[in-house]
Amino acid sequence: MTSPTETERFEQILRYLEQTRGFDFTAYKRTTLMRRVMKRMQMINIAEFDEYLDYLQVHQEEFAALFNTILINVTSFFRDPDVWSCLRDEIIPTLLESKKDEGPVRVWSAGCASGQEPYSLAILFAEALGADALRDRVKIYATDADDEALAQARAATYSQRQVADVPEALVKRCFDSVNGNFVVNRDLRRAVIFGRHDLLQDAPISKVDLLLCRNTLMYFNSEAQARIVQRLYFSLNPSGYAILGRAEMLFTHATAFTPVDLKRRVFRTVPKANARDRLLMMTPANRDGGQAASQDARLRELAFEHDSIAQLLLGADGTLSAVNGLARHKFHITARDVGRPFQDLEVSYRPAEIRGALDRAVQQRTEVRLSDVPWTVSGLLRHFDAAVCPVFEDTGTLLGIRISFHDITEMRALQIELQHSKQELETAYEELQSTNEELETTNEELQSTVEELETTNEELQSANEELETMNEELQSTNEELQAMNDELRGRGTEVNRANAFLESIFTSMSSAVVVLDRELRVKVWNDRAADLWGVRADEVHKVHFLGLDIGLPVADLRQPIREVLNGQHERATVTLPATSRRGRAIECKVSVTPLRGTERDPVGVLLFMEEIPAENVS
User: Fold this and answer.
1) Which helix (H) or strand (E) segment is 26 a member of?
2) Residue 45 sits in a domain of what CATH number?
3) Which domain holds residue 576?
4) Is the dihedral of CA 115, 116, 122, 125 positive or negative?
5) What is residue 319's DSSP assignment?
6) pTM, whole model, 2 decimals?
7) Do 57 and 121 belong together in one domain?
8) pLDDT tens track for 492-522
9) Are residues 445 and 590 in the same domain?
10) Looking at the structure, do residues 211 and 185 belong to the same domain, yes or no?
11) What does the longest C-alpha to C-alpha distance in the chain come to?
């Protein structure tokens, strides 16, 4: 367990990073941060936090390496193939269909690291639309807090191993080969806008249709996660898609997100509430109930006559009992119409079909409303809300029916004008925002605020996140091992060259050369030896030399070989009668020399065999 002193020393490092580099790690999980910093310390052989703080103060280049270790920039093209299959087959076609006539598709890759994820998105959209339509219809914003990773992403240059997960056909269409590397082609590169962005401090990208924030939230504590998810919710358009990492869930945010595919961590935003409708529902209706206690019939008559809402009163038998001044004016009702059956009057079917509503109100014993009824009067279009309300005695007997017409023409005109103004404002804002993006080539925009979100099952999710983090670390280690394997393969190539060179030397020698190990088994048998004795190298490899029948009395070489192996002689030479592969009797001069290892001890012997010409034989 980390002691209080060590914890305080670790916090001093975090404060120093904030003061010198402006990066605040307050919201990050302390156990994860400490493990990542300690890993970096082990890489440079530093054991104590205070020593590492001194090292940071002296070596400015260490900041980049530390940030790379903390942020774990592990990514790849089309990482988690089942998620990308869902994007290609379901989500992208749905987005393109829904946005056909409503402007560009806006996509945000939050925590993009070195850029493989946003470029993978660009490839999928290019495959769905084509390169020309991609430029016109899709904007992909890619953000990260690591400046070095963003620099790599902007370079758009990747090695053979980094594009190994990209299908070969896509590599040919979407990448250019330059000096052994692969560079994302110009059309795809222009569709992606990179920029530095802190999910906690900076405003999120606005009006986003598709958001990818995979394996990023798990590094933050629960409070920071809630703040980030609030921002992400309001950055998304209604019914926009959010795709998270394998260790991230949104179960506790059911009012904001609904799952589409839990296995792939695909969510969709719940449409935001309509503020205008809520305000209209809160608007109190004017009623005359407050005057019910008055016994002054004249007061009731005048209140009804001058009401700002057109009203008619029907008797239980369906005849017109009363009509106020506004209703008489609007619907051209006269005093002679009072007492007539309501169904005989024009107002019963114009501006709205009231007779059916009358039957429903009486049968259901409740008010029936007709909303936003259009009516053209003298060439002018008016809009009404009509209400048919049955009036009952205390005993439950039907006393009559009240019909009211609320003229909402001016309110509707104001709503239309407000909506039009809002659309014009949004259009102007989009144009201004697009201009800023082209001039500055950045993706930092002013965004809307975000609503509160919570994480689900903190203890279980925390454990999952820790496991995911460890998996990322293992993957990082695996990449290091891959680099070591590449180096070992290079060394193996050099060894093969050396062996080939040694083989060419043995082949080029005029003498027959045989190399034996300490057990006197054949290790090398050159071409001259095969020609002299008529035995191929593959036939004698690892065969005991003294057991060979090659026309040479090999048993007579046992003693010289043992003396050289035991170090009694540095060299021994023996001349033996032999028979060559052609059956001709010859004299063979055999020289025995030790084969020394790294410790200078004999590990075998070399036999040089030369046929002595007849004129040299005494």
Assistant:
1) none
2) 1.10.155.10
3) 509-616
4) negative
5) B
6) 0.44
7) no
8) 888 788 777 777 777 667 788 999 898 899 9
9) no
10) yes
11) 162
